Structure prediction request, 143 residues.
Amino acid sequence: MWIAVLAMIGTFIALYLMLYKLGLIGTLTCSIGSCETVNTSRWARFLGLPVAAWGVVFYLDVLIVSLIGIQPMLARNPVVSWLLVGWGAVGVLFSAWLTYLELFRIHAICIWCVTSAVIVLMIFAISVADLRQILHTDSTASP
Prediction:
């Protein structure tokens, strides 16, 4: 359930950044850092789409998988946990790359981007803990 909550928060952040990048909202509120510098840099697009759009897709995928995983019939299914670990790992690697770009190429930090990276890291950590618990429970269950 925590992963679903985090994915929903991440979706709102990514959607906010995407709407800004697409010009659908005029001002980007940024209390810490230089979000506009980051979001208007040449690095703010990936494979032709705004990075934030990829974030929306990522978070919605994680949200859907996590909501499927809390259904009683699938709550202890390791496949769901493996999917979340896999998505979390992809998210952590992509967030690490984006953070590197912010620090060493763009020379600016976006608090929304950092918040998203923390959320992705939390999703990954929770999904790994959940998978470990499921695998441990399955290995100690009697035949």
Q: What stands out?
A: The chain has one domain: 2-138.
